[in-house]
Amino acid sequence: MSLPQQLRIGLIGAGAIAAPHLHAYIDNPHVGDVYIADISAEACQRRVDEFGIIKRSFTDYHELLADESVDIADVCLPHYLHYAATMAALAAGKHVIVEKPPALSLEEFDEMIGASEAAGRKLFVALCQRMFPAHRKAKELLEAGEIGTPFLATITVMGDEMARLDDPDSWKGDWQKAGGGAMFDTGFHAVYMLQHFFGPATAATAVTKRLVATAQNKGDDTTVAILELPDNVLGAITVTYAATGNRWQEERRIVGTEGSILIRDDPEDEMPLIVMRDGDFFPVKVHGPMQVNWWGIARTLDHLIDCIVNDIVPEITLQEARSALATMLAIYQSGRDEERIRIMI
């Protein structure tokens, strides 16, 4: 299929995550205009009013997909709807970008991958933290041996999602609609980043708890997971959505035999990447955007669209997303069974 000079994006979902996607499309030279679909006409209209790039709106995404002028479907729906929307988009002959997590099970995701191959269309998962400047530089430092041999990596995420976790009608954290709570949502970033640094996890041991949230249909608000990674590296992930007194904070520390790397993304932090060695610390110069998550989403979408336009191999692979999903499912199984779970992919 030959592509037009400028692509038309069909954005499916007008919720919170749609905003950074639309902001990215405004600045992308390959994007002409955007169509949007959401079951809420009011939500669509808010996005139309906010972003002039949107030319048409629909309350049924199947109508959007029926338009042959749409080149790429961008799926920004709640987790449980990713599979159906992606399969419909591929059946309609669209390339697809889907938000994380790509599906609620490996079986669903494997069907999505198979459908993209059968349709001859590209499928991508938007793993936006792969593009964070401090993450990319940290990967370079690790490969250069700046801290010797790594043996421990920790990621801590403190956030407040209690309003939605305590609302039984919100899909956020709902077992059926979200696949789990804080870990399945934001913890997905921590999992794929640890595996990007060190390779796929081979086993997981986790405690997944609803310590504060009251809605009975919701999953964990706080989880601690230990991942066994290649080359004798241990990874520890702590995620909570119950830190009501905190603004959102994420910190990653990688410890090696000759030093450590500290990665932070506090908007006010002038030193997002630090190497600690020989009792001293050395700030590493990287571009730290004020809104690093929006910036990372934009760079991810730029890269994936470039892969479509120029038919190049993406940095962010489907196998990477699948491995993260497999690890996430093992974490929840460990929490349920209260035992160490080996990961087979």
Order of helices and strands: EHEHEHEHEHEHEHHHHEEEEEEEHHE
Name of the CATH superfamily of the largest domain: Dihydrodipicolinate Reductase, domain 2
CATH class of the largest domain: Alpha Beta
| Biggest β-sheet description | 9 strands, mixed
| Oligomer description | single chain
Radius of gyration: 20 Å
CATH topology of the largest domain: Dihydrodipicolinate Reductase, domain 2
Structure, explained:
There is one protein chain. The protein has 345 residues and is α/β, with parallel strands linked by helices. The chain folds into two domains: 7-126, NAD(P)-binding Rossmann-like Domain (Rossmann fold), CATH 3.40.50.720; 132-295 and 324-342, 2-Layer Sandwich (Dihydrodipicolinate Reductase, domain 2). Helix content is 36%, strand content 26%. It has helices at 18-27, 41-50, 61-65, 82-91, 106-119, 133-143, 162-165, 175-178, 182-185, 187-198, 292-310, 318-337, and strands spanning 7-12, 31-37, 54-58, 72-75, 95-99, 123-126, 150-158, 203-209, 222-229, 233-240, 249-256, 259-264, 273-277, 280-283, 341-342. The strands form two sheets. It has a nine-stranded mixed β-sheet with strand order 14-13-12-11-7-10-9-8-15. A six-stranded parallel β-sheet has the order 3-2-1-4-5-6, sandwiched between helices. Strand 4, helix 4 (82-91) and strand 5 form a beta-alpha-beta unit. Helix 1 packs across helix 11 (292-310). It is globular. The two termini are 33 Å apart. The mean pLDDT is 95.
